[in-house]
Structure formats: C-alpha cells, structure tokens
C-alpha cells in the first residue's frame, strides 16, 4: 500500500487485511497486479495515485527495507515468503537480512514478526532446471543430513496466480515424504498393504495380549510358585505395564534416531526373547518370572510409538489414514481377550507353553515385518558418538524420568506386599519424587532436546492427563479385581472367565468405529467426560454385584459399559492434548497419553492393593477376601468419579474462555493446526508430528 493517508483504496485494503488475518495482501485496485510482481507500485521508489477529484498525490518511499507490522498474515495452507530470492541468489548487501522471532503460542491469528523485508520481489520458478539448481543450493546450505531430511523444501510460485499472490511448498524428496502425492502406501499392492497394516496392528494387539494372557492364568502361575496372595501376584501385571508406561517416550526418540522400522522390529525380537525366558522360569523362582515380565514390557514399549510413527510416515493425511488408525485402535480390546483365551487354552496343557507360543508368534510377526514394512525416513541423524547421543537423545533426562517413575510405581505396588511401615518403601517414594522434581528442572532449563518439552505444555494439559490418569487407574483396578472376583469368588476357570469377558471385544470394536462420529458431533471434551462416566458406572456395577448373581445381570452390563470408557478416552484425550500443544510438539500428544495410560494401570493396581490390605488386615476368610475386593473396586469408582469432576472442570474452563464445547470448533481448530515450523536459515518447513521428539539442526519458529 502507499503511504498517502487519504487513499481510499489503501484504507479499504488495510481494513480487509485487519478483518481477515488469514488472507494475504490482495491486489491493490490502482496497481492492477500482484504485489510480488516486479513492476508493482509498492516496490518502486516513487509512484502516484490519481483520485476522482483530479489531484495527483506523489509518495516517496524510503529505499531502506520497510518495517513490517507484527500482524504478519498467512494463508491457511500456504505461506507467502517475500524472501524466495534469498534461496535463488545471495542477498544484496543493501537489502539486509530478514529475521524471524517466535511469537506467543496462544496468538493464533498473527504470524512471526518480520523485522525487515527485502525490497526485491521473489522470482517465480517456472523452469525445472532452475528449480533443481535452487534445490541444490538449498541442500548445500543444510549440509547436516538430518536438517536436509527434516526440512528439505523450498518455495516456489504456483504456475497460475489467481487473486492474491501466494507461494506453496515443493517437497525436496517426494519419494520419502509422507505428505507427497506419491506416498509409500501408493507403491504397495493391495495384498502387501493388507499384510503391512496387519503387521503394524500386531504391535497393539500383542501388547494387550501380553497383558491378557498372564491375567487369565495368574492363579495357575501363582500355584506353581506357591503364591496365593493377590497382592503378591499383582507384580506380574504391574511390572509389565510399568515398563511400557515409562519407556514409550524414550522408545519414540530411539525410533527418530535409528529408524522406526529398525526399533519396531527390535521391540518384537526383544519381547519374544523374554517371553521365551518367562516360560523357562517354571524351573526357577517367581522372581525370575517377574523380571522377565518387566523386560518383556520394554519390548512392547519399543513397538507402540514406532508403529504409530510408521503409519504416520506411510500414509498421507486423509480418510484412508483415519481408517487405518481406527483399525489400529480397534485391535486393543481384541488383543486382551485373544491373549487371555490363548493363555487359558495352553494352561490346560502346561502354562509355560502359552509363553513359548507367544514368543513364536512375535518372531513370525518380526520376520514378516522385515519384508513388508517400507523403509521410511526418520527425522534424526543417527548419533555418531556417545556424547552426541547424550545430547540428541537426552539420556540424562531419560535416566531421571525412568528412575523417578519406576521408584514411585515400586513403592505403590510393593507397599501392599511388604507393608507401608517398611522404611525402604517410603524411601523409594521420596527418592522417586525428588528425582521427578530434578527431571522437570532439567527438561525445562538444561536439556538441549528434551524428551518432554514441558515449557510447551499449556495448563490445559494438566486437566487432560489428570482425567486420563484417574480413568485408567480405575481401569487397572477394575481389570485386576474383576478377574479375581470371577476366579476366586465365583470359582470360574480361566477359559470361562475369558468367555465372560468376550463382550468387551465386540463392544470395543463398535466403540472404536463410532467414537469418530461422536467426536465430530459432540467434541473431544464431551466425549472425554462420557468415557469417565463409563469407567465409573462399569466399575460401580461390578463393585455392587452380588457374588451369586447370574452373569446376565450386572456383570454382563458391566462388560458392555466399561468398553466405551476404554475406547472413547484414548482418541478424545489425544485430540485434546494435540489441541493444547504447538504443531512442533504434536508428536508428544499420543506418546504422553499412552505413557499415562500404562503407568496409571500399574499405579492403580498398587493403590487398589493398598486399600485391600487395609480392609482385610491379613484375613483369608471368604467374607474378608470379598470385602477386600469390593473395597478395591470402590477405590476405582472414586478414581473414575474424580476423572468426571476433572472433565467437568475442564468444560467449565472452556465455557469461561468462551470456547464452544458441545460441538467441535472446527474453524478454531483449523486455524490452530495450520501453524507450521519454519527454519529461519533455509525457510524449510519442519514436520513436527512424529511421535517422540522433534528434529534438531534448525533455528525454528512457529508461523
């Protein structure tokens, strides 16, 4: 625009820009051309306007680079960069350098502040050879392979300019980019794609199967080692979920550094190894068996985040990708029941066979995955040395975080067994809390590439993760003590108990398929609240169920209701958490939710065991055992009710913030999700959506 204050065209243009922050500079009526064209009046040192009254106003422009208002506007899917010429040719000394500074996360309408803007317009790239030369120059500027692979984009003008001049990104390596039209999935045959998706979904299925198979035959295993106290048996379940919850984020970071496929397959191989050793522990003690279960969970933690990353890197955004992720989520309830059924069947022969058969299945999946999983790119450069690994993988933060979580979970699960009066129980709890404080301090102030970017998390995250922790802590209590109630109180066999749990599979698949529609109609906050109500009602039904009632009474209804809590809470929490972090940190959303889910199951079992111990006080009579189970289940009801209260508080906060909560605010979310990460040096867009971490090597800013 010109500098003449009375120019009506400029005034109208300014009003248009201010009213629509997501529309770039329109054509000035008096210029008749795009602002990016070389002869546009705004780029000339002198131009004039002829107004209706016949007077001509002359405007002289300063030759220095003009200052820009901090309200730098961007289109929804494209970004206009007047500095494309910097990629094609070196800056002229008189034009200076443009710098970008990061703006507040909450500012959804304004882009980065441009201190200086080059006067010369960018040159449209119409020739393929010219484009290749520009790309080569871009790659030379980013010699770091990780930087080139992560950004690797330059900007060019569209072939046809319609309306406001806009720029769009061009992928550097279209074959390896998940957002390019030729994605890795497009190169697969239907058969290979079906096998590929099945292999990836086996990560979710086998993780839950590893939990279900032990839960179904836990008393059979306990009889082998002479263990009958449920509090002693709880470690066989809690140890497995503990390692899954504490190592998911670290496994995601390893996938970024060493390749998703490589870590994914290594996770299956590791799980197979320790499942086989767990079977041989029949000739040893329960200590070895428990250690094997703990280490087996480490393999599951390696598989889960990298399975999500492989799906995200293989499929471009769209309905196809959404359907694949829905299938991935639906395998969770199937895995738990299939594992329990397999464990019950093999226990009729000899329970170690269940673990050896499971190890064989894991080896077969790893072998098939080696051939069908495409070699998609990963976003970290593999550390060349141990100091580089310490810096890039945040090993100090990983050690602190894992140690803190492990000690706290150990205290809660060992306390009911040894008694809370033991000094080492309280010592473990205190040391774990101190290490957690140190971990938070290191991640906020000292880590170069933190595993969890705590500074990027908004206050809403505490509401979301708090509700998830309460709901899935309740689920841990429900799953463990419902099995105890049916097998110990109702005297059911492992196979019959599995049959009573089978409605969870059917309802779980139905819930997974309909949750997407509910999220669209109601919105994630409301769906999250409904899931907490499902946890509460389902646990309440089994807590008040008479011990002689028919299965088709409260037990059957409980199986129908609790499934909605499981399959609605995960996608709702993931979307809410994704909404509460910047695009750069989108990758931690699913990882944090998975971490909290598995860790809450482990801690929840320990809390339930503590309550049971206080109620029974060592008594082993029928009535005392039943009272202890009911007290633990009522604790689960209390946890789920607290989750409902947290969700209602979150809804009230959204109401105070004047944000819609009964329907999903798609317009607000659309603006929110189209913030991008741009390298200040090369202008490349950084994709920060991979699970686990973000790629280093660039000076990044949100736009």
Automatic annotation (TrEMBL):
Residues 21-71, 168-188 are annotated as: Disordered. InterPro entries: MFS (IPR011701), MFS_dom (IPR020846), MFS_trans_sf (IPR036259). It holds the Pfam family MFS_1. Residues 28-42 have a biased composition (Polar residues). GO terms for cellular component: membrane. The chain crosses the membrane at residues 233-251, 263-283, 295-313, 325-347, 353-373, 393-412, 424-448, 460-480, 500-519, 526-545, 551-577, 589-611, 631-652. The keyword Membrane applies. It is found in: Membrane. GO terms for molecular function: transmembrane transporter activity. This is Major facilitator superfamily (MFS) profile domain-containing protein.
């Amino acid at each position: 625009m010109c500098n003449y204050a009375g120019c009506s065209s400029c005034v109208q243009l300014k009003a248009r820009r201010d009213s629509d922050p997501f529309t770039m500079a329109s054509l000035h009526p008096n210029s008749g051309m795009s602002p990016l064209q070389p002869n546009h009046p705004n780029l000339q040192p002198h131009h004039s306007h002829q107004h209706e009254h016949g007077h001509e106003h002359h405007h002289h422009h300063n030759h220095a680079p003009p200052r820009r208002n901090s309200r730098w506007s961007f289109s929804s899917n494209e970004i206009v960069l007047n500095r494309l010429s910097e990629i094609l040719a070196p800056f002229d000394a008189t034009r200076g350098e443009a710098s970008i500074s990061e703006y507040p996360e909450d500012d959804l309408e304004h882009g980065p502040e441009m201190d200086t803007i080059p006067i010369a317009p960018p040159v449209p790239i119409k020739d393929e050879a010219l484009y290749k030369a520009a790309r080569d120059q871009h790659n030379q500027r980013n010699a770091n392979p990780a930087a080139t692979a992560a950004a690797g984009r330059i900007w060019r003008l569209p072939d046809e300019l319609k309306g406001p001049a806009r720029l769009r990104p061009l992928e550097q390596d279209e074959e390896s980019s998940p957002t390019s039209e030729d994605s890795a999935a497009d190169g697969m045959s239907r058969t290979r794609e079906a096998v590929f998706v099945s292999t990836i979904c086996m990560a979710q299925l086998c993780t839950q199967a590893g939990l279900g198979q032990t839960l179904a035959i836990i008393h059979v295993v306990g009889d082998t080692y002479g263990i009958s106290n449920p509090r002693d048996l709880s470690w066989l379940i809690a140890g497995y979920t503990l390692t899954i919850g504490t190592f998911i984020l670290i496994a995601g970071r390893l996938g970024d550094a060493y390749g998703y496929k490589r870590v994914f397959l290594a996770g299956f191989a590791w799980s197979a190894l320790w499942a086989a050793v767990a079977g041989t522990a029949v000739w040893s003690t329960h200590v070895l068996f428990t250690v094997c279960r703990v280490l087996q969970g480490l393999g599951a933690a390696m598989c889960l985040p990298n399975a999500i990353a492989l799906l995200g890197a293989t499929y471009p955004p769209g309905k196809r990708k959404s359907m694949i992720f829905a299938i991935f989520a639906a395998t969770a309830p199937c895995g738990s029941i299939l594992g329990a059924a397999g464990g019950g069947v093999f226990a009729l022969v000899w329970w170690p066979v269940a673990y050896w058969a499971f190890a064989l299945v894991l080896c077969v999946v790893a072998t098939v995955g080696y051939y069908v999983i495409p070699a998609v790119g990963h976003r970290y450069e593999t550390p060349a040395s141990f100091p580089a690994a310490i810096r890039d993988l945040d090993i100090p933060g990983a050690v602190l975080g894992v140690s803190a979580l492990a000690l706290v979970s150990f205290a809660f699960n060992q306390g009911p067994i040894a008694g809370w009066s033991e000094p080492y129980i309280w010592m473990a709890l205190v040391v774990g809390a101190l290490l957690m404080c140190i971990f938070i301090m290191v991640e906020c102030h000292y880590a170069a590439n933190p595993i969890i970017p705590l500074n990027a998390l908004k206050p809403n995250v505490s509401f979301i993760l708090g509700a998830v922790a309460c709901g899935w802590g309740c689920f841990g209590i429900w799953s463990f003590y419902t099995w105890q109630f049916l097998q110990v109180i109702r005297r059911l066999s492992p196979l019959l108990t599995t049959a009573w749990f089978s409605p969870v599979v059917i309802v779980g698949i139905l819930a997974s398929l309909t949750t997407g529609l509910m999220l669209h109609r109601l919105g994630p906050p409301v769906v999250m609240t409904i899931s907490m109500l499902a946890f509460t009602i389902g646990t309440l039904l089994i807590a008040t169920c008479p011990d002689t009632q028919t299965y088709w009474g409260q037990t059957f209804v409980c199986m129908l209701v609790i499934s909605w809590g499981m399959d609605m809470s995960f996608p709702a929490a993931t979307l809410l958490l994704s909404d509460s972090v910047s695009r750069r940190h989108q990758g931690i959303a699913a990882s944090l939710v998975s971490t909290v889910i598995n860790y809450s199951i482990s801690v929840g079992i320990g809390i339930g065991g503590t309550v049971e111990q206080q109620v029974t006080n060592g008594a082993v009579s029928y009535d005392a055992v039943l009272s202890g189970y009911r007290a633990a289940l009522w604790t689960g009801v209390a946890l789920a009710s607290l989750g409902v209260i947290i969700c209602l508080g979150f809804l009230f906060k959204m109401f105070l913030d004047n944000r819609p909560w009964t329907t999903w605010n798609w317009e607000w979310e659309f603006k929110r999700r189209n913030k991008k990460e741009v390298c200040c040096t090369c202008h490349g867009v950084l994709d920060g959506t991979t699970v686990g971490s973000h790629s280093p090597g660039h000076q990044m800013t949100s736009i």
